[in-house]
Structure formats: structure tokens, C-alpha cells
């Protein structure tokens, strides 16, 4: 890891720049110097930034005159699933399908073209699009009786399968729910075809694993899409050995246009290997954290709460891990220089993780452990994030997607601590923003828009949903830049535009810091730069 002093030493006084960005409106995300008009770059790093950097222009310097166009630091998505994005592009995104019949028609069409016995896959179905009731296997069974079907819910925490898939997994009326999972059954005790959280594995384990070439292709596709959308760094939340091999191959072939901070996907052989060898840290691919899963998701009613769901009185959700497991992993990680990033959505799960972290970390530490999502917090527990120096890795678009049904799930008493990004920030907690794609759309500019407006793409609701939780534009920009760098121990060399930092930046089609909220969804990325090199767009 380069220190700031070492990087500054690389920029000798009077040495000409490789690239000068001139006549721009630069928002630096650096509170000490929030705006500039020009920036000089050499060897992938910023050597000068201010109103006039023309002294750095030499005979071979490329000058990019932006004619006033806005420039921001490269955006950092602090919680993504790159393989999942590649899958979604490769398969079919069911997010906008509005009925069970529409999904069944797609499955029927796919089955007509696929050899008998071939698995049919797609993701992002959402039962709230058709009234809120979970679907039944019968629609998929009728559409594809000879093909096993496995469709992943939008949150990744439920699967919808057909009878063929249930038969392959030998799921019948006597099959018990696995720990941390649930087989949805009808009043007669028959499996309906929906599997929650760890119950998905009963069928998922029967699906042939993707080949190394398939994984590599998906990650390459996802990385290109990220560069197109203005992401220069992603935090991949839970990789396995196949993804790690693919990332290393893409790096060696110079086919990875974005930086990757990868989290090891839970305990297992890969975790044990890294515990023995230590973190792997460099500027393009870093592995120094582990991703754990404490509970399920609110949309599929698997998030763990102290009290039952307001719209499902017999259900308080699912705890996937025990506190002693989180505490054991946290202790291992702290001793070996790793970070722990735990998915927790419900108030019970969040408190359990905070208690486990607290026993290992104590107060005011530098370990930068994270809670991923931190979606519904009991009001007294916000202070524990600050007390134990825990980062809240939150996703602003979750609020604007879930606002359709969040109140019905939580009831009026719990909603004040839910999707509470501003409350978290006001408590003195670092909030790193992200999308959780492909659960949400991967476009980070829509995440910025959601953070400042609390509205959907159509501008609803008027004034924003729970507008007291809106970020200022400066707070939103920092949450998508500096905070993401901080959450990965990388704020010394990226996350803002300043001398000595890497030249990861975007040229936008519109000024997100000044345009009315209604215009923000129309803003796109003209150019994406990583280390001063164009990875999307034309100069």
C-alpha cells in the first residue's frame, strides 16, 4: 500500500503531466478544497489541482478541455455482487414482470428452446409486483414440467422453484426446515415452491456449478458495466475460490477496468487459507475481509426482529448465525488483520452483531468492522455503532424500493429506525453507500439521487419518503466516494480528488450538485477514468 508521502514523492516539481483536465467544474469530495477548475495527472496520480494547473503542461501532455462540464471522484459501491450482475445480464431480469403469468410465459418460452432436464434460471422476481402473495410452484410446473426451474427473488433471499426441482432435491412433506431457512408450505403441509434463505440450498446445491470460464465471463461483463455506469471501485460482498481465480486472470490479462475490494464469502477453506497467509492488499484487488450473514431479508420476511412482522404476526424472521459464531470469526479476524462485514437487516440481527463485535473490539478502535445494510435499527442501538467504531454500509435505493411495503412490514413504531441513513450519520457513524446490485439497479447516480431525494425514478412521493432522512448533496457524494474508500482502509490514496491520490474520476452529462431533483435521473456518465486512463467513453 502506498502512503500519501510516498505518492507525493512520485510527483516531482515542474515535471509535466500526462493529462490535464481543464476548464471543468470539479467537485473534489475533499472538504478542505471542495471545488476546482483543473487537474493535472501523471503516472495515474494527481500532481496538481486548483483553478489553473497549466504550468504542468508539457509537449506530450494531453489536454482535455471540458468546457465547464462537471467532474466528480470515481464512485465506490460498497456492497455489490459482481457474479450476480453478470448472471442477471446473461439471464433475465424479472424485476419488472408484473404477474406470475408473465414469469411463467418466459419460463415456457425458455423451456421450448432448452434440452429436457436443463436448468432454467432467472432472478429478481418480486411478489410485491403482483399483490404481495408468494407464488406457487404450479405455474412453473405447468410451464416447464420436464425442466427444473430455479428463480431467485430480487433480494437474493428466496427462490421460486417448480415440482421438477423439488423432486430433484427430494423435498417432500416430511422434509424439515434447515437451520436458518424455511420451506413455505400450504395449509395441508405441502411445499409451495418458495424456499427462504438457507432452504434455497436444498435445491441450489443440485444445480451444476458454473465453470471457471463462465465465472470469468460474468465478472468481465459486470466490470465493463460498472465502468460504463461510473463505478471505479466495487466491494464484492462474498466471493469464493472461483471468483478469486477469475479476478486474478482478468487482472493478468488487463481486462479488469475497475478496482475490487473483495470479501471472502463466509467461513470455509478459503477463509482458513487467508487466515494462515494474511490479507492480500494492492491497488487493483484486495482481500482483507470476510462477509457473514446474520439474518434474511425484509422483503421475503426473513429479516430477524424482536417482535413479529406487522403483516405476518406469527413470524419474527430467521437468524442465520448465532452470536458466538460472529464473535469467534470477529476474534480471528481482529488477530490476523482482517475486517468483518456482516449482513444484518432486522433490529434483532443488528443488535446481535453489535454485541458480538463489541465483545471483541471494545470502544474507539481502528478495526473498521462493518454492518452491511443496517436496515432496521432499534433507536437505542444507533449509539452502539459509534461506540464500537462500526461502519454502516447502507444502500439508499433500498429505501426507495422498499417504501411501497416497509410500513406494512414494520408498523409505525419501528419505522423511525428503518432506512435511517441521516440518523446514522448524525450519530457520528461513517455511512458507506452502495446498491447491493443486482438486488437494486447498478447505476450509482440513481443511488445518489435516492440519497438526496428519497424518491423513486418517477419523483414519488412528493417531498420524499421520510424526508428527514435525506442527505445533503455533499453528504451523498462523500458517502459514494470517501466513505467507501474509508470502509476499505483506502482513504489515504483514493475517495477524493487531491494531490497524491489516484486519478479515478468521472465526467458527467449534468451537474448533480446543482440540478433540481427531477433532473437527476437524466444525468449520465460521459467518461470514466481509472488511474488517469479512460475505461469508458471517448476523450
Briefly say what this structure is.
This protein is α/β, with parallel strands linked by helices and 539 residues long. The protein contains 18 helices and 23 strands. The strands form four sheets. The protein has an eight-stranded parallel β-sheet with strand order 8-14-15-16-17-18-19-20. Strands 3-2-7-21-22-23 form a six-stranded mixed β-sheet, covered by helices on one side. Strands 9-10-11-13-12 form a five-stranded mixed β-sheet.
| Low-pLDDT sequence parts | 1-13
How many DSSP helices?
Answer: 18
The total beta strand count reads: 23
- The CATH topology of one domain: Diaminopimelate Epimerase, Chain A, domain 1
- CATH architecture level-2 label of one domain: Roll
N-to-C span: 30 Å
Biggest sheet statistics: 8 strands, parallel
Q: In angstroms, what is the radius of gyration?
A: 23 Å
Average the pLDDT over all residues and give the rounded result.
95
How much helicity do the residues have?
25-40%
* SS class: alpha/beta
Bulk shape: globular
- Give the percentage of residues in beta strands: 15-25%
**Which strand order does the major sheet show?**
8-14-15-16-17-18-19-20
CATH class of one domain: Alpha Beta
Structure description:
With 539 residues, this protein is of the alpha/beta class. Among the domains are: 1-68 and 497-539, Urease, subunit C, domain 1 (Roll); 86-204, Diaminopimelate Epimerase, Chain A, domain 1 (Roll). It contains 18 helices and 23 strands. An eight-stranded parallel β-sheet has the order 8-14-15-16-17-18-19-20. Strands 3-2-7-21-22-23 form a six-stranded mixed β-sheet, with helices on one face. Strand 17 (339-344), helix 11 and strand 18 form a beta-alpha-beta unit. Helix 3 (100-113) runs parallel beside helix 4 (137-143), helix 10 packs across helix 11 and helix 13 packs across helix 16 (444-453). The longest helix has 18 residues, at 212-229. The chain is globular and about 80 Å long. The two termini are 30 Å apart. Mean pLDDT is 95; it is low at 1-13.
Amino acid at each position: 500500500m502506498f502512503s500519501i508521502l510516498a505518492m507525493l514523492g512520485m510527483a516531482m516539481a515542474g515535471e509535466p503531466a500526462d493529462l490535464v483536465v481543464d476548464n471543468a467544474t470539479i467537485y473534489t469530495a475533499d472538504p478542505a478544497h471542495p471545488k476546482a477548475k483543473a487537474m493535472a495527472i501523471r503516472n495515474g496520480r494527481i500532481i496538481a489541482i486548483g483553478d489553473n494547473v497549466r504550468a504542468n503542461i508539457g509537449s506530450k501532455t494531453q489536454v482535455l478541455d471540458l468546457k465547464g462540464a462537471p467532474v466528480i471522484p470515481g464512485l465506490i459501491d460498497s456492497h455489490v455482487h459482481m457474479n450476480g450482475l453478470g448472471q442477471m445480464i446473461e439471464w433475465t431480469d424479472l424485476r419488472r414482470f408484473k404477474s406470475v403469468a408473465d414469469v411463467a410465459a418466459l419460463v415456457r418460452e425458455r423451456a421450448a428452446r432448452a434440452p429436457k432436464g436443463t436448468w432454467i434460471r432467472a432472478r429478481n422476481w418480486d411478489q410485491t409486483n403482483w399483490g404481495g402473495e408468494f407464488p406457487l410452484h404450479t405455474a412453473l410446473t405447468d410451464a416447464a414440467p420436464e425442466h427444473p426451474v430455479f428463480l431467485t427473488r430480487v433480494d437474493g433471499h428466496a427462490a421460486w422453484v417448480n415440482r421438477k426441482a423439488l423432486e430433484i432435491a427430494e423435498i417432500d412433506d416430511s422434509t424439515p426446515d434447515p437451520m436458518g431457512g424455511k420451506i413455505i408450505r400450504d395449509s395441508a403441509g405441502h411445499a409451495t415452491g418458495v424456499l427462504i434463505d438457507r432452504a434455497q440450498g436444498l435445491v441450489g446445491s443440485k444445480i451444476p456449478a458454473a465453470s471457471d470460464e463462465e465465472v470469468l465471463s460474468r465478472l468481465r461483463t459486470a466490470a465493463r458495466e460498472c465502468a460504463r455506469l461510473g463505478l471505479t471501485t466495487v466491494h464484492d460482498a462474498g466471493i469464493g475460490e472461483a471468483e478469486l481465480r477469475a479476478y486474478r486472470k482478468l487482472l493478468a490479462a488487463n481486462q479488469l477496468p475497475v478496482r475490487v475490494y473483495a470479501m471472502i464469502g463466509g467461513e470455509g477453506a478459503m477463509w482458513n487459507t487467508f487466515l494462515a497467509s494474511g490479507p492480500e492488499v494492492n491497488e487493483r484487488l484486495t482481500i482483507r475481509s470476510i462477509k457473514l450473514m446474520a439474518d434474511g431479508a425484509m422483503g421475503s420476511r426473513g429479516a430477524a426482529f424482536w417482535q413479529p412482522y406487522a403483516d405476518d404476526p406469527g413470524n419474527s424472521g430467521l437468524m442465520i448465525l448465532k452470536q458466538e459464531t460472529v464473535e469467534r470469526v470477529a476474534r480471528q479476524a481482529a488477530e490476523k488483520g482482517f475486517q468483518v462485514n456482516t449482513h444484518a437487516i432486522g433490529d434483532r440481527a443488528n443488535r446481535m452483531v453489535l454485541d458480538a463485535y463489541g465483545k471483541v473490539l471494545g470502544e474507539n478502535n481502528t478495526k473498521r468492522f462493518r454492518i452491511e445494510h443496517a436496515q432496521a435499527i432499534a433507536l437505542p442501538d444507533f449509539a452502539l455503532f459509534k461506540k464500537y467504531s462500526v461502519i454502516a454500509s447502507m444502500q439508499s435505493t433500498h429505501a426507495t424500493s422498499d417504501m411501497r411495503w416497509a410500513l406494512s412490514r414494520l408498523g409505525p413504531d419501528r419505522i423511525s429506525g428503518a432506512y435511517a441513513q441521516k440518523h446514522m450519520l448524525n450519530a457520528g457513524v461513517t455511512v458507506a453507500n452502495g446498491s447491493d446490485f443486482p438486488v437494486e439497479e447498478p447505476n450509482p447516480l440513481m443511488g445518489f439521487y435516492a440519497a438526496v431525494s428519497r424518491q423513486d425514478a418517477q419523483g414519488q412521493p412528493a417531498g420524499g419518503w421520510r424526508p428527514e432522512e435525506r442527505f445533503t448533496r455533499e453528504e451523498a457524494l462523500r458517502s459514494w466516494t470517501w466513505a467507501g474508500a474509508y470502509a476499505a482502509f483506502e482513504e489515504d490514496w483514493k475517495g477524493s480528488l487531491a494531490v497524491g491520490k489516484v486519478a479515478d474520476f468521472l465526467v458527467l452529462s449534468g451537474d448533480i450538485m446543482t440540478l433540481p431533483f427531477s433532473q437527476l435521473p437524466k444525468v449520465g456518465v460521459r467518461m470514466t477514468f481509472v488511474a488517469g486512463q479512460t475505461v469508458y467513453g471517448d476523450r
